[in-house]
């Protein structure tokens, strides 16, 4: 088969259209898992999958699959799976996750249009709740799919808004009939924007992702005493807000001092009673710790625990923690990584091996199949932000590399 390329206009048009679905009254893109706007995105994706002539399958956690199983392939043949997610964070960019799902669909449509005859089915999936903003943990749909979380426990998850995931999936019509894991992939490939600064800084258009860092999410609750902001001497305060602030600066100072890839983020914080002239009686915040090395990540978690104990004593507050997610670092399949490098070279494109700083569904599917990821540059390294941007040429180049690797992995 000659060197075939994806239909750039179709892929870019769908990316832009999906990026316009789920904007709130202020124009922010917000398609939180199992929400009404998530439903709008899902419905549009299913339209496209049907239009491509794919069989649609939805599992009990709402993962959506488009299946291309040409005649003559033994039904028992395990599929090559492509995919990512289309749920978003709050005030998201339009490429995170959506690019991998729509490029996977584009690759299948291009192969079908060019009479490619795959030796195995090719499936594109959109996994539920990759972002984990409304329901923790993140990568939940692919975690359940790969057997890392019991389906009924996942469906019972209470969201940050008090909703129940299973009820919401029913409500939006995406509580499907299939058992998660009903299709065991022969291999899994995920195309994604880098969401970091490396490829752009080095002027390299393609990332052949060989591993993905570990992730630790915790919720920390600090309880002190409300008191009068004007009359209470500092020495008499049990200030939950101050204690939280000390933890946040501890995390940053430790990450800088460690001189390692360790990163720490406090993304959510709430004070009670949250009044300008009341010393906070309670502070609730999240801690996101990441490191490519499991031993270092464990050491960072232990250091945080020790510091929380110290702060509890020094500030005379009580501190409790709740684990929200914990994923170990994952190494991807070196053979597929090599195919990605070869495909890039075959298109005259430079590539470089790299680690993923972000979590991805690939991290979960690696539990049940050989996996690798392809990255394209993020301008300014920006993501989880409406300024997220990747030039069209890079988006198309990434999709063509995905196309070439898929052809290679499904030719006999
Ligand atoms: O948190 C992550 O890295 C992913 O975007 N859910
Ligand atoms: Mn993503
Ligand atoms: Mn994301
Ligand atoms: Mn991700």
Q: How many structural domains are formed by the residues?
A: 2
Q: Sheet with the most strands?
A: 9 strands, mixed
Enumerate how many helices there are, as a single number.
Answer: 12
User: Could you tell me the strand content as a percent range?
Assistant: 15-25%
CATH class of the largest domain equals Alpha Beta
Number of strands: 16
Write the layout of secondary structure elements.
Layout: H1 8-20, H2 36-51, E1 55-58, E2 64-68, E3 80-84, H3 98-113, E4 122-126, H4 140-145, H5 151-155, H6 165-172, E5 187-193, H7 198-202, E6 206-212, E7 214-223, E8 227-228, H8 240-258, E9 263-265, E10 269-272, E11 278-279, E12 282-291, H9 294-315, E13 318-327, E14 330-331, H10 334-346, E15 351-356, H11 361-365, E16 371-376, H12 392-409
Parallel strand pairs: 3-4, 3-5, 5-16, 6-15
Antiparallel strand pairs: 1-2, 2-4, 6-14, 6-16, 7-12, 7-13, 8-11, 9-12, 10-12
Helix pairs in contact: 1-3, 3-12, 8-9, 10-12
What does this structure look like?
The relative contact order is 0.18. Strand 1 and strand 2 form a beta hairpin. The mean pLDDT is 97. Strands 1, 2, 3, 4, 5, 6, 14, 15 and 16 form a nine-stranded mixed beta sheet that branches. Strands 7, 9, 10, 12 and 13 form a five-stranded antiparallel beta sheet that branches. Strands 8-11 form a two-stranded antiparallel ribbon. 35% of the residues lie in helices and 21% in strands. The chain has helices at residues 8-20, 36-51, 98-113, 140-145, 151-155, 165-172, 198-202, 240-258, 294-315, 334-346, 361-365, 392-409, and strands at 55-58, 64-68, 80-84, 122-126, 187-193, 206-212, 214-223, 227-228, 263-265, 269-272, 278-279, 282-291, 318-327, 330-331, 351-356, 371-376. With 412 residues, the chain is of the alpha+beta class. The chain has twelve helices and 16 strands. It binds (2S)-amino(hydroxy)ethanoic acid (HGY) and manganese (II) ion (3 copies). One manganese (II) ion is lined by residues 85, 96-97, 130, 192, 360.
């Amino acid at each position: 088969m000659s060197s075939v390329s994806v239909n750039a206009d179709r892929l870019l048009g769908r990316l832009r259209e999906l990026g316009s679905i789920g904007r709130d009254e202020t124009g922010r893109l917000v398609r939180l898992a199992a929400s009404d706007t998530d439903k709008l995105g899902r419905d549009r994706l299913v339209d496209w999958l049907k239009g491509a002539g794919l069989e649609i399958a939805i599992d009990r956690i709402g993962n959506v699959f488009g299946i291309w199983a040409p005649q003559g392939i033994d039904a028992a043949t395990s599929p090559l799976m492509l995919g990512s997610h289309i749920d978003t964070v709050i005030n998201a960019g339009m490429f995170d996750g959506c690019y991998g799902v729509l490029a996977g669909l584009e690759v299948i449509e291009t192969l079908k249009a060019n009479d490619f005859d795959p030796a195995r089915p090719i499936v594109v999936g959109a996994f539920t709740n990759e972002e984990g903003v409304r329901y923790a943990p993140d990568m939940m749909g692919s975690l359940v799919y790969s057997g890392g979380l019991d389906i009924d426990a996942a469906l019972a998850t209470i969201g940050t808004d008090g909703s129940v995931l299973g009820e919401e999936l029913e409500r939006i019509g995406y509580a499907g009939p299939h058992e998660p894991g009903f299709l065991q992939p022969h291999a899994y490939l995920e195309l994604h924007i880098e969401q970091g600064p490396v490829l752009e800084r080095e002027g390299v258009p393609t990332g052949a992702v060989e591993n993905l860092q570990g992730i630790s999410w915790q919720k920390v609750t600090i309880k002190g005493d409300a008191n009068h902001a004007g009359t209470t001497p500092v020495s008499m305060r049990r200030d939950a807000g101050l204690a939280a602030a000390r933890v946040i600066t501890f995390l940053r100072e430790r990450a800088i001092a460690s001189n390692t890839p360790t990163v720490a983020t406090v993304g959510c914080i709430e004070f009670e009673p949250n009044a300008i002239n009341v010393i906070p009686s309670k502070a609730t915040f999240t801690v996101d710790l990441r490191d490519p090395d499991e031993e270092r990540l464990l050491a960072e978690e232990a250091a945080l625990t020790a510091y929380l104990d110290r702060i509890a004593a020094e500030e005379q507050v009580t501190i409790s923690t709740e684990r929200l997610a914990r994923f170990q670092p994952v190494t991807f399949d070196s053979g597929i990584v090599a195919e990605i490098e070869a495909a890039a070279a075959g298109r005259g494109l430079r590539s470089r091996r790299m680690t993923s700083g972000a979590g991805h569904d690939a991290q979960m599917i690696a539990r049940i199949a050989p996996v690798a990821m392809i990255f394209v540059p993020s301008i300014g390294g920006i993501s989880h932000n409406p300024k997220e941007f990747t030039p069209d040429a890079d988006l198309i180049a990434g999709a063509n590399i995905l196309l070439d690797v898929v052809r290679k992995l499904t030719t006999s």
